[in-house]
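Our consortium's second objective concerns turning raw sequence data into structural hypotheses that experimental partners can test. To show how far this objective has progressed, the report includes one record in full. It was chosen at random from the queue rather than selected for favorable results. The single chain below, 753 residues long, was entered without modification.
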Amino acid sequence: MSNKPVICSKFMLKVATVTVIQEVNQPDELIPVLVLCPSQDEKQLLSSADFSAYCFHCLEYSSLQTTPPKLKGQVDLVAFCQDAIAYAKVHKIAAVYYSFDIANLVAAVVCQSLNIFGPRLESILQCFHKFYAREIDSYPPGYSVVQLDNEKDILIDKDIVNTLRFTVFVKPVCSSYGMFCGKVDQPEQLQQVCKDLARAYQPWWQMYRDLFQAFVDGTKYPLAVTSQVPLLVEDLISGQPLTCDGFVYRGQVHFFGLVDTVEAKDGSVDCYVFPSQVSQAQQRAIYERVANFIQDSGLDNSFFCAEFWLQEQGSPVLIEMNARMSATFGFLYQQSLNFNLPKAALTLAQGICPDIPSQTLVEKTPTSCRLYLSTRNNGLASTLFDFSLAQQTLSCSQLITFNCEAADQIKNTYYHPTPLAELNLVGSNRAALQFYGQHLRNALLLERRSPAYQIAVAQDCVLQGGEGLYYDPRSNQLFCLDYGNPQLIQLCLTTRKVQRFPLPGLCYGLALSGTETVVLSGELGLVELNLNTKEIIPIIQDYQGKQLVCNDVVIDKNGNIWFNTIDEDATAIRGTGALLACNPQGQVQEVFAGLGYANGMGLSPDGRSLYVVDSLERSVHVFVLNSDRTEATLPDIHDHHKFIVADETEGVPDGLAVDGAGRLWLTFWFGGKVVCIDPQSQARVREIVLPVMNISSVTIVDSKCDRTAESPCKLFACSSAVPWLGGKVLAPWYAGDLPVDRQGYLFEIDIEL
């Protein structure tokens, strides 16, 4: 039997669309599972070989988007339930799988109607309907219900509302994803805020109300069937948000995880992190509250996801009880506990108690993080988020999940920002993972690029160790070295034709020496490569009896070759770099011997100043060249000074380029950015953030030279996937938890100056 599943053609029921996912052969031997309202990611997951024992019957509603929730038309959940029940009967469904709130309600109706193992609707209602959940909770915050009548009047019990402590929080009685919520600071603002929220929520409430009228006892639960749109108003609780996950099997409560919710400054979710940092005493208090709520609600044969606020004093405050697993946390538990949440949900759905993951010390548990890339802006998604850049640099490593498509229209919600994408991170240092996530926000959210710039990945320029970028304005050619796979890459910016030249050793720097020749610096010292004949001629390989390892190289207008040397191995940087010069007659002279780790170099537009990066010092050395020298004399310097360009927390300056206005453009290894600095004031002019961290080289393309350029200035920057072993001593605190890049990239950056 083939291990490759096949997705059968879709077909329609009354309102539901069915997709069957099953093994190629012997479908009669597979366990038939009804999957309600799966996301595209879930369908892809269920199509994997890990779930080959099942035949999945996926029922979807085209007018209902699950993640994030969105109504694309009128939704009749009663008809959807009828479709699901009829379909389950015909196909002898053995289990029902779901991970979404609305699917949770439908699943309860199906399980109850067909006596399939699973939760019952009344217990789900008491969890999902926030008013009835508050009624069950032993220690709820102050709360009340307001209702929208005749689409215009808000009905408020002023006696109860007057007991609330403003600021208060308003939210729908049945909703998810923090939709249609808002804070109200003053009592006089309550009526208008509630009216705005209730009107926006009305289509959703109509959908829920119709379902509850068909399947719930309205005399027992009148706020489930009311035609007046209900909202919950409650005390605004602050503290540390946290989620408790587990399941109930035949009346027995099982816990397997506590997840911390890290909030952004505006109160929205920044990320979820596992394991939690709560104390053992807080954990026991949370478990007790959850167990009591489950007993009082009658929830059984179901996963649960309970959301709390933790306060310095007093009991934990239960915010919501979700009677389902949290699919959002699936990555966290898989990475940190090797616990497959979807498999556990399928096991429970079949009436079998899932195996609980063994608990280890928090200090020994890997930290996993799901971090949101969100916006409060409106508009076309492609104008808010760089989908192309994210797909080309992150998707291959499964770091990112997209919550929308580039063509989607994004509309700001009342309270929470819209999550455009989610990052899946794992490591040992929580703060480092959050730092990296914030870096990717800055790289991919277009609202954070100010002044604006555009980034594209140059196609057909696959790299391992990108270095030595150089632009030739005469031929409109770009040169790039790859020391991970020793070669020279030549890209014609006019035709986009790529040529590759294999090299006999590792090279790090390049300068144009003639129409068809380039000087290369690296492990072989200085050599000259003829691009036509591919012949390599040594220029300088040793100096004063010592073999040279050169890093970068530039050639001034008089033909003098300026190059620097480095001394390192896999364990350390020796700190004995030097600046040397070679005149056209081949005479070599050491110009300066005080460099720690010599790196990128560049000449000022007038040719009078030479800039050299010292990565060890995180500085730029400025050498003012002697203007009285001639071609026949050895080059020397008239003056020298340096200035610091980075601190220890933002990475290491590496590559350098000088633009036509004399500004310095520096790349940052470990820092994932290119920074522009005015060498006179030493002030930062602007910053370009890239989605990979080890940026090694940069060069400038003036639009006057490149007729294909669409902006006044174009940069090319490259990255490296080759570890800098000797540079570990320079690594900032977060570097150990950065993901390992699988390849280097050549970035094309259009900027406005």
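The partners drew two points from this record. The first strand starts at residue 5 and ends at 7. The chain is about 20% helix and 35% strand. Both points have been shared with the crystallography group to help prioritize constructs.
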